Amino acid sequence: MGQAICKELWESLLDYKTENWVFLVKKGYQVTDTSMESSIITKVKGVAFTNTSEFGEQIWDVADYVIPPQGENIFFIVTNLVVTPNQRRATCAESDRIPQAWCYEDSDCPPGEPVLTGNGVRTGRCLRSKNMMGICEIYAWCPVETKSRPMKPLLGAAENFTVYIRNFIHFPRFNFSKSNVLNSRDRAFLKSCQFGPENLYCPIFQLGYIVNSTGSNFQELAAKGGVIGIQIMWDCDLDKAASKCHPQYNFRRLDDTFSGESISSGYNFRFARYYHDAAGVEFRTLLKVYGIRFVVMVNGKAGKFGIIPTGINVASGLALMGIASFFCDLILVNFIKKSDFYRNKKYEEVRLAESLQQDLATEAKDSAEQPETQDGNSDEKRNGCECSQLLLSNRSGDSKNVNVNVEQMQNLQPVEVQPEVLDGS
């Protein structure tokens, strides 16, 4: 008996329970806080040199290629551009790359109407050669942009630029705060360190490392532009030491990731720099810039042991286990093909005939052990002997004979014992 109890206890300890694992892995015993407060500061470092026909020799620093310069959680790095210098307000031909600007005669260019997706307002003239399709004249900043994007990025050297990303978080429910920067008084630390899997608390990231971590090629992305997401995830178990709460980084490509031939891939926009000549007339330089837009996203949660969620989850788990067992038994006993097999394993069958036979055998044994009595007790003795014989004859027989023996016992009649007559009395 004791061995059986020990065996059942041991098997119960080794028994796999899904509910127990879910409770532990999902930390159902903790109070959680997802209302994390966060701040982001970014700062890009790097210098590049270019020599083009539009700009000549040019030094590019953060004031030239970082937009906006404030260092927010979203920033843009210029890597390629198309320059249209010395634009002035005047009349000129619209770009021939715009179908709405094509014309055959002046009536095709109604004056005062802007060219859809174009650069200016129609003047009413169709500028064309004889017997050939022409282009509407417009009033705009002339000359209009006509050049195409260079296939090789102007600032390919930006691959070696670095960005400093400082993230500060706070969980108000637990009054817990932390930063992704190593708490050090060494000023040289940030000037010499660089982020890596073994250096999570150095917030200096090389742009090439970030882009390559997404599976993209930096030079190809720099030529046409794109959007990169930098995700910082904080998952803090406050039942452990604060030093165990680490930032986790994930880098992803967020823009269209189709092939380079896709018209929807890339990222670019335009802006202008304005000047005045010696006569005070305004002119400008139009820049269509391609580059990489970085978006820093911070998510996180913190958890700590709480008696209330522990009690609720334990109680609901126990209730769920009871309901599940009931429905499983219901299906297995009644609806599967081998329900008889499961029923035999689930329930223990009590045999009434065998139990009755054992009870009768016990009574017969007790009667046989009683001492013999004289006179009036002889009837009981005889009856007891007959009952014992009946029971003993059935102890080695089949259980089907039990009912017959019971009936025989019920039909037994008391036997009258006649006194012996002695000769001569």
Automatic annotation (TrEMBL):
It catalyses: Ca(2+)(in) = Ca(2+)(out). Residues 363-384 are annotated as: Disordered. The chain crosses the membrane at residues 314-336. InterPro entries: P2X2_purnocptor, P2X_extracellular_dom_sf, P2X_purnocptor, P2X_receptor, P2X_RECEPTOR_CS. It holds the Pfam family P2X_receptor. It is a multi-pass membrane protein. Homotrimer and heterotrimer; functional P2XRs are organized as homomeric and heteromeric trimers. Homotrimer. Forms heterotrimer with P2RX1. Forms heterotrimer with P2RX6. Forms heterotrimer with P2RX3. ATP-gated nonselective transmembrane cation channel permeable to potassium, sodium and calcium. Activation by extracellular ATP induces a variety of cellular responses, such as excitatory postsynaptic responses in sensory neurons, neuromuscular junctions (NMJ) formation, hearing, perception of taste and peristalsis. In the inner ear, regulates sound transduction and auditory neurotransmission, outer hair cell electromotility, inner ear gap junctions, and K(+) recycling. Mediates synaptic transmission between neurons and from neurons to smooth muscle. This is P2X purinoceptor. It comes from Erinaceus europaeus. The lineage of its organism: Eukaryota, Metazoa, Chordata, Craniata, Vertebrata. The gene is P2RX5.
